[in-house]
Amino acid sequence: MGKIDWRLFLKLSIKNRINAMENIIIENKGDDTLHNFLKEFIDKDTELKLTIGEFSIYAFYDLLKEIKRLKSFEVILTEEQFHIEEASFSKRFEIAQQQQNICGNNYELTLKNNMNSTYIARVINTLIQSKVNFKLLKPDKYLTNQMILKNKLTQDKNVFLPSIYNFSSDGIGTQPSNSLTPITAITGDENIVRTFSNTFDNNWKDTDSVRDHTDKIIERLTNISSENTPEWLYYVSLYHIFHNQLDELDEKSTIKEGTGFKETTVWNTLYDFQKDGVVGLISKLEKYNGAILADSVGLGKTFSALAVIKYYELRNDKVLVLSPKRLRENWTIYTQNDVRNVLADDRFNYDVLNHTDLSRYHGFSGDIDLKTINWGNYDLVVIDESHNFRNNNPTKNDRPTRYERLMDEIIKQGVNTKVLMLSATPVNNRMNDLKNQIAFIINDNPQALEVYGIDDVDNELRVAQTRYNEWAKLEENKRTTSRFLEMLNSGYFKILDLLTIARSRKHIVKYYDTKEIGDFPKRLKPISIKSDIDTQDNVSSIKDVNDEIKSLNLSLYQQMAYVLPNRKARYEELYDTQTARGIFRQEDRETSLTGLIRVNLLKRLESSIHSFTLTVSRMVKQIEDILKVISRSQNNDIILPSLIDYDDEELETAFEDYAVGKKNKILLGDMDLHRWKLDLQEDLEKLKQIQNGASSVTPIRDEKLNDLLRLIDNKIKNPINKGNRKILIFTAFADTANYLHDHVSEYVKKKHGLNSALITGGGTNKSNMSGIKVTNMEDILVNFSPISKHRNKIDEAATEEIDILIATDTISEGQNLQDADYLVNYDIHWNPVRVVQRFGRIDRIGSRNTKIQLVNFWPNMELDEYINLENRVRGRMVLSNVSSTGEDDVINEDADKRDMNDMNYRRKQMKQLQEQVVDLEDIDGAISVTDLTYNEFKSDLSEALKVNENELVTAPTGMYAITDADLLDEAEPGIILTLKQLSNEDKEQSGLYPYLVIYMRQDGTVKLNHLHTNQILSIYKKLAKGKNIAFQSLVDQFNNETQEGKNMEEYSCLLTQAIEEIKGKTEEVGIQSLFTPGGTHFESADNLQIDDFELISFLMIRE
Questions:
Q1: Per residue, what are the HEC states of 165-195?
Q2: pLDDT digits (tens, 9 = 90+) for 407-422
Q3: Each residue of 842-874: pLDDT tens digit?
Q4: β-sheet with 974-981: strand ranges across
Q5: Which residues pair with 978 in a beta bridge?
Q6: Quick check: keyword ATP-binding in the entry (predicted)?
Q7: Averaged over 383-405, what is the pLDDT?
């Protein structure tokens, strides 16, 4: 190709015979612009030849009349604008944004914000097809920017511009820019123009140097100017909003090549949804140093975590798993040379410790010596059931808490430690429950996520708790999950979205092929059974027994109230607890305890008459024992000690004899024994009367037990899945579990020839199946659920099984028992979440059962009556709900109203459980992590990227689409704007920062501001997803009103009003932060202007 001969250029420029030549300096400011210069020099005989890196439609539009007058217009582009080399998702996005200047650069935002880009693109497309030709310089060639105006008829209008800016509005001077370099134009020299024109022509014809590009430009402009479908605009908006998290969706860029990870057994065992989760977790661990996996019950969190562990082990990282003791074997099995280890080929080598080991300094945990372990040498810590670390309550002996030891000795010390947490899905009523878990990830540094738009993590969590407390006070009909999401601060959304992966069962079914994963079993309508206590009706009803419970003093548990006034101060000094907002008195704690004891008695009565009788009998014996000691003292048979007899250093031995209380002991010599004795005797008399009635109900007369036996008979005779006789029975109390096993196992063995077993956690496990190691809980579970637990790998010849398993909540989490299809809650748990978690043991992905059944035993009374009853039992308990911030949730003047709201709320949840089995995230009123992330929208984007990434990556900004308001009841005519804030100052409080979405009504008022991100995106999705054909009648209506999109003043005005709203909210949030401890970030928003925001897209909602 030809090159510029600068020696020739200098020689020609100094010849005397070019007296008409003139050098013109164009400042490109005010009226002295390249735009005005070209308007003066272009006529119908002008041939314009342009060599340029990039151009925009706005420069063409500014010179529309002039370009139409040209004789010809040829452009050599020196930079490819529509070709993106293979790279990661996020890198492809970055490259694409650099190549988007055809639709306007940063200096042309004002023009883009006029919202008529589509119209302009349509006009310029027509212009190019009739007047302009493009060629593209090949990658290994180089040319500088230049412009030639060749005019054969008018010599004075021959112009050569040896160096120009890009052909954009700022480049031709119609938009201001930061460039200070003027443009030089050499006019009137026919020889210079001819020379460089010939060079241009030679380059134009040189197929080794350039290739035709006009069709590509026309294709690009056609795409820009075409009517977009609502669905396409939805995907384009999501693509921009979530582009910085795209690598979490990109397996290729996350999983490093050469590790052999994809050849591991664990990776190839995973379903697709689990693989996507693992990729996301690894990406978050690399990016944020931690992640929380909070998938719903039954979605295989353990195997997902094992895959993550294997990835880091292949990088020679040292891994520690911290597990609840009851789930320890779920993890240790995969590190052992054991036939049950289905992942033996992967040779896992991580360490496993119990949560409780963090409180130990000596001894062994498995093979690990806790005295010599190098805590600071772990590259990755995996915490199972991490919600157990939600509290960090101080210890009495000033030793570090488990939380503090994990933070100080593992995470902060030694090597940089990444943290993966497996957590329960619900958030429930303590938004701050996540604070300590998040602190592990951010290394206790509240500013750790500042680069991602979260200035102060602690402040966002405090604000979230405040919003929750406000929501909890709403009337029942207003206290909905959607209302809560409206009220919640966007920063909390963003924290969870950055750090968590939380998929619900519905999400998996919706976004993944169920043929590959297998269908979930069908949940049959729950069976509700209401049993009386006594078949002979000789025992009072629950209501009557409860009235007797309410009349008890329960003075046995309120020792501080009976301490002599002159002795009380010493005990207060020992046992009162200092909190952030004052002192929590031991006497108040004991008062609270009596409320819990009354509830416990009621719940035990509801569980089984046997459990209730045992509890009452224990209370009777305790009172009788204390009364004996008091009587001996009053008879002067013994001398009771007092604290005044001991110095401080002797306190450790002071409580060895004649003291009451478990943890906080009180010496009987310091108590008003006369008064206490009278109250104890009154309780004893009432308790003995209750005991006599309850103990008369033998197992034969126990109606609830007999109802259970009939239920078992019916299930065995009429299985809901062919040949499946398995039943899993849960109870909250070990006493009830032992009672059931004693009477069910013998009955079932004798009548049906089936084996039974009992698991009670801290108690003694039992089974009547021969060969079972009852000391090993896992041995019982393997024989109860042999398929899911891979028993055939242990003993291929084994055929005998356990069919009836009775258990406490020790196995309500973390166990796969999906061989069973029938689950009985012998007592209904007060927390509906626990009921669903129990059911999750059999309600699991890939189950062999087509149907599963939940059976709930309820007290024999109407639900409203029962809840009212329980509420009265609880009374006004002065409970100190110490949150993870150390602040007390002190009962205030709104407590009565809140209690009533809680009661109504629970009634609603319990009624829901009587009608259907729901997922955790669908429990009425439960707030779930899955509600608090943008996972649903990222999954929509992920699906779109699989099919249309090439189109999405090149999609221009500033596009619009039109949808129908009638598609959604809550929709109103208006516009949903997707914006990008370009200024780093006055950062908006958006969960999507730097992106914002805002919903404006057509009349200019705000329907939903940018703080309601999740809600707006949900509306956007409902109005757009699946709408892949334009609403032609609405499009025609719009085109008529706006002259095909040319006249967009009405919509541009809405954009201006939206930005004014954003500015207003910035100041409002800033002012509010003045009154939030540690949360001040107030600045005036006056600095924000319309040019500080780039218009990404706008969805017009019409009717």
A1: CCECHHHHCCCCCCCCCCEEEEECCHHHHHH
A2: 888 888 888 889 999 9
A3: 988 778 899 999 999 988 776 666 666 666 555
A4: 959-964, 1093-1102, 974-981, 995-1001, 1006-1008
A5: 997, 1097
A6: yes
A7: 71
The Cβ of residue 661 has, within 10 Å, a number of other Cβ atoms equal to: 16
Q: How far apart, in Å, do the first and last CA atoms of the chain sit?
A: 58
pTM higher than 0.70: yes
Tokens (6 digits) for 422? 């497996």
Contact between 720 and 847 (Cβ < 8 Å): no
Please tell us whether the domain made up of 260-422 is placed in CATH 3.30.70.330: no
Provide DSSP, 894-920: THHHHHHHHHHHHHHHHHHHHH----G
SS3 category, 1091: helix
For residue 992, the model assigns a pLDDT of: 80
CB 664 within 8 A of CB 573: no
**How many other CB atoms are found less than 10 A from the CB of residue 588?**
16
pLDDT tens-digit readout, 10-69: 444 434 333 456 889 999 999 999 999 999 999 999 999 999 998 999 999 999 999 999
- For 521-538+697-859, the fitting CATH number among 3.20.20.140, 3.30.230.10, 3.40.50.970, 3.40.50.300 is 3.40.50.300
Alpha-carbon torsion angle 484, 490, 491, 494, nearest 10:
100
The rounded distance, in Å, linking the Cα atoms of 146 and 161 is 6
For residue 76 the two structure tokens come to: 């050599």
Work out the burial of residue 553: count CB atoms within 10 Å of its CB; fewer than 13 is exposed, 13-18 middle, 19 or more buried.
middle
Residue 875's region, left for phi above 0, alpha for psi from -120 to 50, else beta, is left
Q: Are 1091 and 953 in contact (CB under 8 A)?
A: no
The candidate with the shortest Cα–Cα distance to 278, out of 318, 247, 248, is 248
- Classify residue 511 as exposed, middle or buried by CB count within 10 Å of its CB (0-12, 13-18, 19+): middle
Determine the average pLDDT of the residues in 688-704.
92
- Sign of the four-CA dihedral 98, 102, 108, 109: negative
Q: Could you read off the pLDDT of 30-45 as tens digits, one per residue? A: 999 999 999 999 999 9
C-alpha gyration radius of the chain: 38
Does the pLDDT of residue 1075 top 60, yes or no? no
* Residues 1082-1102: tens digit of each pLDDT: 444 455 677 788 899 999 999
The whole-angstrom separation of Cα 314 and Cα 342 is: 19
Residue boundaries of the structural domains of the chain: 6-225, 230-242+949-1102, 260-422, 521-538+697-859, 544-693
Residue 774: predicted pLDDT: 84
Helix ranges (DSSP H) in 534-641: 542-550, 568-575, 586-607, 609-634
Cβ proximity of 705 and 741 under 8 Å: no
280, 503 Cβ separation under 8 angstroms: no
Cis peptide leading into residue 446 (ω within 30°): no
Q: Residues 711-758: pLDDT tens digits?
A: 999 999 999 999 999 999 999 899 999 999 999 999 999 999 999 999
Task: Return the closest-CA partner of residue 815 out of 349, 357, 355, 331.
Answer: 331
Model confidence over 138-164: pLDDT tens digits?
Answer: 988 999 999 999 998 988 899 999 988
Residue indicated by tokens 């200096």: 107
CB 748 within 8 A of CB 804: yes
Q: Are 802 and 783 spatial neighbours (Cβ–Cβ below 8 Å)?
A: yes
For CA atoms 675, 680, 685, 687, give the dihedral sign: positive
CATH class as words, domain 6-225: alpha beta
Average pLDDT over all residues of the chain: 82
- The more confident residue out of 1081 and 801 is 801
Give Cα separations from 708 to 722, 727, 747, 828 (angstroms): 21, 11, 11, 14
Q: What tens digit of pLDDT does each residue of 660-672 get?
A: 666 677 788 888 8
